[in-house]
Design goal:
The protein has helices at about 5-25, 35-45, 50-60, 100-110, 125-140, 155-160, 185-200, 215-230, 250-265, 280-290, 325-340, 365-380; strands spanning about 65, 70-75, 85-90, 115-120, 140-145, 165-170, 180-185, 205-210, 235-240, 270-275, 300-305, 320-325, 350, 355. By secondary structure, the chain is of the alpha/beta class. About 40% of the residues are buried.
Length: about 375
């Protein structure tokens, strides 16, 4: 249960964060006077002590000087660099290597030893994402954000843009937002994977995804799939799973098994499956094995491989689309530092992916062979 005291804490932090951003970006220039605390209290709908605490926090951080009988004045010198960058993930999953170690390594390669990296986990909750963005805006020099893409949170992204908070989106961009971003080249990667299966003789390829129309990466993959099969005059075969199944392993496995049986042995006779993420590809691969369907062979699977490859069980049996994670991290950090240092940068960058073709012959036969296979996969994905 949220208490009144908790609300007050959130409010004074929000107020100090708002004013700090305005000072950093020059909206409130050096020497300007902030509103009296009683007017700030009315503006934000808080008590005067809450407004007073917010102004005291600004003074503590060096943004303002509070002078008796004069008021709160923006400090002559800008506050010192905090030497910290926030990485806000929509969901942290260490067992799935997310955020990926290679991505973080790319960020650190640019930041060097001058900045530390603070990790925030939004846990898929839109309210948490808002709190993390506002907190990071006040306590770090810039934000790298995996957005939830919930349209309810566009207002906090608009606030960050208007107040000049250095921020870079990665992986996806919410509808209606034009913030700096580093995005995977979803279109080319999807097209190339679908073309690969077509070249290998598959004419009935199913698109398999969770129902997430608000997520730009899913939408772009779907559009690219439709364009690729349409160019060859092939039929669109689509299955969108209920999104609740994303966190329901047993129910998802059962659903996918029935889906594979119906698609492959039913009227649609699908022999190719394009899966937008790993859990779907793993479910299709396991279903094929359970139904005695050879894969690769009778059926082939292509997927965006974000998990550590061995979590797919038999990754060499799947056409894996692997993003250049280290490059995405490097470019995200470069865009952020350009904003901090006020130097030119390209607003949006699209980073290509590497496609590893299914090849059962590469299946390791020893522990050392498996280590070599994994290392080789990582090294080639970053070329």
């Amino acid at each position: 249960m949220e208490h009144e005291g908790d609300k007050a804490v959130a409010k004074w932090k929000q107020i100090s964060s708002d004013f700090a951003a305005q000072i950093r970006t020059g909206v409130l220039p050096v020497g300007s006077r902030l509103l009296p605390e009683e007017e700030i209290a009315v503006q934000y709908g808080v008590s005067r002590p809450t407004a007073n605490r917010a102004l005291n926090e600004l003074a503590k951080q060096g943004y303002v000087v509070r002078k008796p009988k004069i008021g709160t004045i923006v400090a002559e010198a800008k506050p010192p660099t905090k030497h910290s960058i926030a990485l806000i993930a929509d969901r942290v999953a260490f067992h799935l290597d997310f955020p990926q170690a290679e991505f973080i390594a790319g960020i650190q390669e640019v930041l060097g030893g001058e900045y530390s990296l603070a990790l925030f986990d939004s846990s898929g909750e839109i309210a948490k994402e808002v709190r993390h963005i506002r907190k990071a805006a006040a306590t770090t020099d810039g934000i790298i954000l995996y957005p939830t893409c919930n349209p309810k949170n566009n207002s906090v992204l608009d606030w960050a843009k208007q107040t000049g908070v250095p921020l870079v989106l990665v992986d996806r961009s919410p509808d209606g937002e034009d913030l700096p971003a580093v995005l995977p080249d979803e279109v080319s990667a999807t097209r190339d994977a679908v073309e690969l299966m077509i070249e290998r003789g598959h004419k009935r390829i199913a698109f398999v995804s969770f129902d997430k129309p608000e997520v730009s990466s899913v939408r772009k993959r779907h559009e690219a799939y439709l364009a690729a099969i349409s160019a060859h005059g092939l039929p669109a075969i689509e299955r969108f799973l209920p999104r609740d199944l994303e966190i329901m392993d047993k129910a998802r496995a059962s659903y996918i098994r029935d889906m594979v049986f119906a698609l492959h042995r039913g009227a649609e006779e699908a022999t190719g499956f394009f899966c937008v993420q790993d859990s779907l590809a793993l479910g299709v691969l396991d279903s094929c094995e359970g139904l005695s369907i050879s894969c690769p062979g009778t059926v082939e699977i292509a997927c965006f491989n974000e998990w550590p490859p061995m979590l797919l069980g038999r990754p060499w049996n799947i056409h894996r689309i692997v993003r250049r994670k280290r490059e995405m991290g490097r470019v995200a950090a470069q865009k952020l530092m350009a904003q901090i240092n006020k130097t030119p940068y390209e607003a949006v960058s699209h980073i290509g992916a590497t496609i590893f073709t299914a090849d059962p012959s590469t299946s390791p036969t020893s522990a050392s062979g498996l280590s070599d296979w994994i290392l080789n996969s990582i090294q080639h994905s970053n070329l």
